[in-house]
Amino acid sequence: MKPSSLSLIIFLLGAAISAASAQQKDSAWLEKLLRAQASPLLQNVLNKPDTFQYQIIYTSIDRDKHNRPHFKHYYYNVDRNRYFNPASTVKLPAALAALEKLNSLKATGIDKYTSMLTDSAYSSQTTVLADSTSENGLPSVAHYINKVFLVSDNDAYNRLYEFVGQQQLNESLWQKGYKQVRITRRFTPMTEEENRHTNPIRFVQDGKLLYAQPAAHSNAVFDFSKKVQVGKAHWDWDDKLINEPMDFTTHNNLPLDDLRQILQSVLFPESVPAQQRFNLTPQDYAFLYEHMPKLPFESAYPRYDTTEFFDSYTKFFMYKAGKSKVPEYMRIYNKPGWSYGFLTDAAYIADLKNKVEFMLSAVIYVNSDGVLNDGKYEYEEIGYPFFKEIGDIVYKYELGRKRKYKPDLSRFKPGNL
């Protein structure tokens, strides 16, 4: 099928500016801060950038007398052209795009709480007509987004991907300036063509059909010209060992600085150009501010086993390594991802007690045997401690950093949303 003209135009524009965005970003100051307090484990990681392929971004935030935030970004070993598998971090833009699409369909009478029933019309597609984890027993965009932030639920993401559609999801991000972002697949075994096909969906209320979305096929044009291979061997879908690197050429791609900026655009929409903002309502922002920092034990629907889904299950910075309790006064708005040995997190951290706020984003690759899909990654030994220690170092610095104006963080306080 002939590619859409919009996809082609956006692709060509992206190719034209690719050279301008290819440079690596580094800040000697951030490296100095981390190394001055790094444990032997962290020093070892920092000394081996090729092995661990880490990237780190620290964003300091200073408020003016009107409480308007001003941002300064510090980069360490950040290169947007060094591929890492973004894993579940793509669920953040998918959730935002779903809310944005709902707002374009207001005339139909649907919103994020309307029951959303997913049918199937192509190979490997599955249906969802009920959800026992929701309060009313039915699925909805709001409930899917809730599960995405609580425990990074894969099926919830798949349903958001199917609602938005591959083409609209990518083109909407490209139009916002995220030219290198590529979201091509669900998190379930499917071919490239199967991922281009998305399901028919019905929105119903009290048994009445409000809106029917037909099955769709994506004509989005992706640049797969750069071959991306990781590791030395991998296990395929049939549990067969392939003694070749794993090919990520057509997989999802989300550069760390883009992930950081998408997060910033949600929490501080006024800080980015209007073109880069998502079309969200005040109610959407309040919904996101409530659910992004929510911990599994705080959820009644779904209800989680907190021995498995502990406080820091999706909070890598400062807490994940010890599976410890997150204090009530610490609010962490983030989206992490973990897959194939890559760990990623982008977070805005607000200490409501000490009036401290900052952003941290990082990725690390921990796969010493070079084999992907074997389930043998050094997440516990190296990955999670890496995030915890970076978070601890920056938080300690932030506690001691002098500010002309203390931030008013009341907008992020539970009950004030």
Mean pLDDT across every amino acid position: 93
Q: Major sheet, described briefly? A: 5 strands, antiparallel
**How many individual domains?**
1
**CATH class bucket:** Alpha Beta
Order of secondary-structure elements: HEHHHEEEHEHHHHEEEEEEEEHHEEEEH
State the shape: globular
CATH topology: Beta-lactamase
Calculate the terminal CA-CA distance, rounded to whole Å.
46 Å
Stretches with pLDDT under 50, minimum 5 residues: 1-22
**Within the largest sheet, what's the order of strands?**
3-2-16-15-14
Protein architecture, described:
The chain contains twelve helices and 17 strands. The protein is of the alpha+beta class and about 425 residues long. The chain has one domain (about 5-410): Beta-lactamase, CATH 3.40.710. The model is unreliable at about 1-20 (pLDDT under 50). The protein has helices at about 5-15, 30-35, 40-45, 50, 90-105, 140-150, 155-165, 165-175, 190-195, 255-265, 280-290, 380-400; strands at about 25, 55-65, 70-75, 80, 115-120, 195-200, 200-205, 210-215, 215, 230, 235, 240, 245, 330-340, 340-350, 355-365, 370. The strands form six sheets. The chain has a five-stranded antiparallel β-sheet with strand order 3-2-16-15-14, sandwiched between helices.
